[in-house]
Amino acid sequence: MITDTIANAGRYALLHPDFADAVRLLQTLDFAALPDGRIETGNPNIRLFIGREPMRAREAAKPEAHLKHIDIQVPLSGAEAYGWADRSHLENGLGYDEKRDIEFFDCGCETWFELHPGEFALFFPDDAHAPLVGSAATIRKAVFKIRAAGHRL
Fold first, then answer.
1. Cα torsion for 63, 68, 72, 76, to the nearest 10°?
2. pLDDT of the chain along its 153 residues, tens only?
3. What is the value of pTM for the model shown?
4. Which helix (H) or strand (E) holds 20?
5. DSSP code of 148?
6. Whole-angstrom Cα distance, residue 152 to residue 124?
7. In this structure, what DSSP letter does residue 7 have?
8. CATH architecture observed for domain 2-147
9. Which of 3, 19, 27, 92 could in theory staple to 106 by disulfide, Cβ–Cβ 3.0 to 4.6 A?
10. Cα separation of 22 and 45, whole Å?
Protein backbone atom coordinates (compact mmCIF):
# COMPACT_ATOMS: atom_id res chain seq x y z
CA MET A 1 0.00 0.00 0.00
CA ILE A 2 1.11 3.53 -0.76
CA THR A 3 -0.44 6.78 0.38
CA ASP A 4 0.76 10.17 -0.84
CA THR A 5 -0.37 13.42 -2.38
CA ILE A 6 -1.48 13.68 -5.98
CA ALA A 7 1.38 16.15 -6.54
CA ASN A 8 3.85 13.36 -5.64
CA ALA A 9 2.16 10.59 -7.67
CA GLY A 10 4.85 10.66 -10.35
CA ARG A 11 7.21 8.97 -7.89
CA TYR A 12 5.34 5.72 -8.48
CA ALA A 13 5.00 5.77 -12.27
CA LEU A 14 7.70 3.14 -12.81
CA LEU A 15 6.20 0.56 -10.43
CA HIS A 16 3.85 -0.85 -13.07
CA PRO A 17 3.60 -0.54 -16.88
CA ASP A 18 0.26 1.32 -16.66
CA PHE A 19 1.03 3.59 -13.72
CA ALA A 20 2.44 6.38 -15.92
CA ASP A 21 -0.95 6.68 -17.66
CA ALA A 22 -2.78 6.50 -14.34
CA VAL A 23 -0.56 9.21 -12.84
CA ARG A 24 -1.10 11.44 -15.87
CA LEU A 25 -4.86 11.07 -15.46
CA LEU A 26 -4.69 11.55 -11.71
CA GLN A 27 -2.75 14.78 -12.12
CA THR A 28 -4.55 16.28 -15.12
CA LEU A 29 -8.23 15.37 -14.92
CA ASP A 30 -10.62 17.95 -13.51
CA PHE A 31 -12.55 15.54 -11.31
CA ALA A 32 -15.03 18.22 -10.24
CA ALA A 33 -16.09 18.71 -13.87
CA LEU A 34 -16.46 14.98 -14.63
CA PRO A 35 -19.83 13.24 -14.33
CA ASP A 36 -20.37 10.29 -12.04
CA GLY A 37 -19.94 6.91 -13.70
CA ARG A 38 -17.27 5.20 -15.73
CA ILE A 39 -14.82 7.59 -17.37
CA GLU A 40 -12.92 6.64 -20.54
CA THR A 41 -9.16 6.60 -19.89
CA GLY A 42 -7.74 5.77 -23.32
CA ASN A 43 -5.94 2.76 -21.81
CA PRO A 44 -7.74 -0.62 -21.87
CA ASN A 45 -5.88 -1.67 -18.71
CA ILE A 46 -7.20 1.25 -16.64
CA ARG A 47 -10.82 1.74 -15.66
CA LEU A 48 -11.89 4.86 -13.82
CA PHE A 49 -15.08 5.25 -11.83
CA ILE A 50 -16.30 8.42 -10.18
CA GLY A 51 -19.26 8.47 -7.88
CA ARG A 52 -20.93 9.20 -4.60
CA GLU A 53 -20.81 6.42 -2.06
CA PRO A 54 -22.42 6.04 1.37
CA MET A 55 -20.03 6.21 4.31
CA ARG A 56 -20.08 3.83 7.26
CA ALA A 57 -18.72 3.44 10.76
CA ARG A 58 -15.39 1.71 11.30
CA GLU A 59 -17.16 -1.22 12.98
CA ALA A 60 -19.22 -1.87 9.82
CA ALA A 61 -16.25 -1.80 7.42
CA LYS A 62 -15.11 -5.24 6.29
CA PRO A 63 -11.77 -5.62 4.50
CA GLU A 64 -11.91 -6.34 0.78
CA ALA A 65 -9.18 -7.53 -1.56
CA HIS A 66 -8.75 -8.04 -5.29
CA LEU A 67 -6.70 -10.54 -7.29
CA LYS A 68 -6.73 -9.09 -10.81
CA HIS A 69 -6.38 -5.37 -10.29
CA ILE A 70 -4.73 -2.60 -8.31
CA ASP A 71 -6.83 0.22 -6.87
CA ILE A 72 -5.95 3.88 -6.69
CA GLN A 73 -8.58 5.53 -4.51
CA VAL A 74 -8.98 9.30 -4.36
CA PRO A 75 -11.40 11.13 -2.04
CA LEU A 76 -12.85 14.14 -3.86
CA SER A 77 -15.38 15.75 -1.53
CA GLY A 78 -14.03 15.20 1.98
CA ALA A 79 -12.03 13.03 4.35
CA GLU A 80 -12.25 9.26 4.07
CA ALA A 81 -10.79 6.73 6.51
CA TYR A 82 -9.49 3.35 5.38
CA GLY A 83 -8.64 0.18 7.19
CA TRP A 84 -5.71 -1.87 5.91
CA ALA A 85 -4.47 -5.43 6.43
CA ASP A 86 -2.00 -7.71 4.72
CA ARG A 87 -4.19 -10.13 2.79
CA SER A 88 -2.15 -13.11 4.01
CA HIS A 89 -3.15 -12.29 7.60
CA LEU A 90 -6.89 -12.32 6.93
CA GLU A 91 -9.21 -15.13 7.90
CA ASN A 92 -12.90 -15.76 7.36
CA GLY A 93 -13.07 -15.01 3.65
CA LEU A 94 -16.65 -14.69 2.50
CA GLY A 95 -16.01 -16.05 -1.01
CA TYR A 96 -14.26 -14.62 -4.04
CA ASP A 97 -16.54 -13.05 -6.67
CA GLU A 98 -14.73 -13.73 -9.97
CA LYS A 99 -16.86 -11.35 -12.03
CA ARG A 100 -16.34 -8.39 -9.66
CA ASP A 101 -12.80 -9.46 -8.67
CA ILE A 102 -13.48 -8.98 -4.98
CA GLU A 103 -13.45 -10.93 -1.76
CA PHE A 104 -14.69 -9.58 1.56
CA PHE A 105 -13.41 -10.80 4.91
CA ASP A 106 -15.26 -11.06 8.21
CA CYS A 107 -12.46 -9.76 10.42
CA GLY A 108 -10.82 -6.51 11.43
CA CYS A 109 -8.07 -4.42 9.91
CA GLU A 110 -4.50 -4.12 11.19
CA THR A 111 -4.23 -0.35 10.86
CA TRP A 112 -6.29 2.74 9.99
CA PHE A 113 -5.49 5.98 8.20
CA GLU A 114 -7.35 8.96 6.74
CA LEU A 115 -7.08 10.61 3.33
CA HIS A 116 -8.21 14.08 2.27
CA PRO A 117 -8.85 15.61 -1.16
CA GLY A 118 -5.51 15.97 -2.93
CA GLU A 119 -4.27 12.63 -1.57
CA PHE A 120 -4.57 9.03 -2.79
CA ALA A 121 -4.11 5.45 -1.66
CA LEU A 122 -2.72 2.76 -3.93
CA PHE A 123 -3.72 -0.80 -3.00
CA PHE A 124 -1.99 -3.81 -4.55
CA PRO A 125 -3.59 -7.28 -4.59
CA ASP A 126 -1.90 -8.13 -1.26
CA ASP A 127 -3.44 -5.06 0.37
CA ALA A 128 -6.85 -5.70 1.87
CA HIS A 129 -8.64 -2.42 2.46
CA ALA A 130 -11.82 -1.21 4.09
CA PRO A 131 -12.81 2.07 2.42
CA LEU A 132 -15.72 4.47 2.89
CA VAL A 133 -15.31 5.06 6.62
CA GLY A 134 -16.27 8.43 8.02
CA SER A 135 -18.90 10.55 9.66
CA ALA A 136 -20.28 12.21 6.52
CA ALA A 137 -23.36 10.63 4.94
CA THR A 138 -21.66 10.22 1.54
CA ILE A 139 -18.40 10.94 -0.21
CA ARG A 140 -17.61 11.60 -3.85
CA LYS A 141 -14.50 9.73 -4.88
CA ALA A 142 -12.54 8.45 -7.84
CA VAL A 143 -11.38 4.84 -8.08
CA PHE A 144 -8.87 3.70 -10.69
CA LYS A 145 -8.82 -0.04 -11.39
CA ILE A 146 -5.51 -1.02 -13.01
CA ARG A 147 -4.85 -4.45 -14.46
CA ALA A 148 -2.42 -6.38 -12.30
CA ALA A 149 0.44 -8.05 -14.15
CA GLY A 150 -0.68 -11.23 -15.87
CA HIS A 151 -4.40 -10.47 -15.68
CA ARG A 152 -7.00 -9.00 -18.03
CA LEU A 153 -9.71 -6.60 -16.95
1. -70
2. 999 999 999 999 999 999 999 999 999 999 999 999 999 999 999 999 999 999 999 999 999 999 999 999 999 999 999 999 999 998 888 889 999 999 999 988 999 999 999 999 999 999 999 999 999 999 999 999 999 976 554
3. 0.94
4. helix 19-28
5. P
6. 15
7. G
8. Sandwich (2.60)
9. 92
10. 10
